[in-house]
Amino acid sequence: MEKNAKRAALSIVAALLCAGAAFAGGKSDAAAAGGQDSLKIQLKWLPQAQFMGYYVAAAKGYYGDENLAVEIIPGGGDITETAAVYSGQVDVGVTWVSNLIVARANGLDLINVAQIYQRSGLVLVTKKDSGIAKGADINAGTTVGNWMGGNEYEIKALLSKLGMPDKSLVQQGFDMNDFDNGNIAAASAMTYNELGLVKNSYEGALAYGENVNVIDMNDEGVAMLEDCMFVKESWARANQDKLARFIRASLKGWKYACENPGEAAEIVFRAGSSVSAPHQEYMAAEVAKLVTIDTKGSPVSLDNLGAFDEAAFQTTLVETQAYAGLSDSSAAAKLKALTAAEIYTDAYWKAAK
């Protein structure tokens, strides 16, 4: 995401629209022709530490070690990652679990095969002098912002839990301008992105430091799972060994990245980072927390990355069912009938261990 000045617009990391020029994430097509199996992974957004495990796996040769030539395709264009995977343009995608659930309700046979983020990265940020330090401090007069487009489900769940009407929620721009100028009292932010741009003092950030409060969806009990690795079910059945090898190499990349976030940030920056080097370093450290700590605050073993938390999946499903608001009656009915078992499988993850 680009930042040109203090009030420069940020691109939302949770954006659903993805495409763009491909980045060769390790081995080329020529290498594939020499005997390696080719595979393409579509990211949810531009190159940044949000996806550092894949870039590290490529840079360290982990994909090559599994006889894979992997092409990492950044997002940021005009097609969604779920559509790209379903259409066969790519083999694997990265998306939020709620996006996957909605795609499944719309008839796409997509399945989560590794849950990379174990904790929600979505928070509400308020100014310290607002007196709003936790969810219970939000009242009918509080203006709460979110980018919408499927990113608002946790916020809606929080407002519902507090007995607040949806009208308290307003559209938030892809920047923190309305927070900075006071138009939005409680603004949505990702811990690894917008929150850093609010608190930190490097170029393009707002330098609020500790003069803000952070309302964490995990602490409020409405956390939903975000970045996961997903595929088309029919493709997975036809490529079981290749998928297991890809998961194994990717998890190795994620383990290394979480153990060495500074180096991971540098690797992503060299790969064509969409953010500055200082923000990339901040981002890597924060992303590592989302991968290695679960929604309850318990540590996740580095040898168990990508595991599936049934309770967290159930919460994510229930909140998506409650707040997705699908206009198509058939899709809405499918959404209500979906079970967690239809959303993910640990079979390929286990095969990769």
Describe the protein in words:
The protein has 353 residues and is an alpha/beta fold. The protein has two domains: 231 residues, Periplasmic binding protein-like II (D-Maltodextrin-Binding Protein, domain 2), CATH 3.40.190.10; 95 residues, D-Maltodextrin-Binding Protein, domain 2 (3-Layer(aba) Sandwich). It is 38% helix and 15% strand. The protein has 15 helices and twelve strands. The chain has a five-stranded mixed beta sheet, with helices on both faces. Strands 9-8-10-7-11 form a five-stranded mixed beta sheet. Helix 2 crosses helix 11, helix 5 crosses helix 13 and helix 5 packs across helix 14. The protein is globular, with a radius of gyration of 19 Å. The two termini are 34 Å apart. The N terminus is likely disordered.
Task: Give a short synopsis of this structure.
This protein is α/β, with parallel strands linked by helices and 353 residues long. Helices cover 38% and strands 15% of the residues. Helix 6 packs across helix 13 and helix 10 packs across helix 12 (277-292).
Task: Compile the SSE list and pairings.
Elements: E1 17-18, H1 29-33, E2 37-42, H2 52-59, H3 62-65, E3 68-73, E4 79-80, H4 81-87, E5 92-96, H5 97-105, E6 110-114, E7 122-127, E8 144-146, H6 153-161, E9 169-171, H7 177-180, E10 186-190, H8 194-199, E11 212-216, E12 227-232, H9 233-238, H10 240-259, H11 261-270, H12 277-292, H13 310-323, H14 329-337, H15 347-352
Parallel strand pairs: 2-3, 2-5, 8-9, 8-10
Antiparallel strand pairs: 1-4, 5-12, 6-12, 7-10, 7-11
Helix pairs in contact: 2-10, 2-11, 5-13, 5-14, 6-13, 10-11, 10-12, 11-12
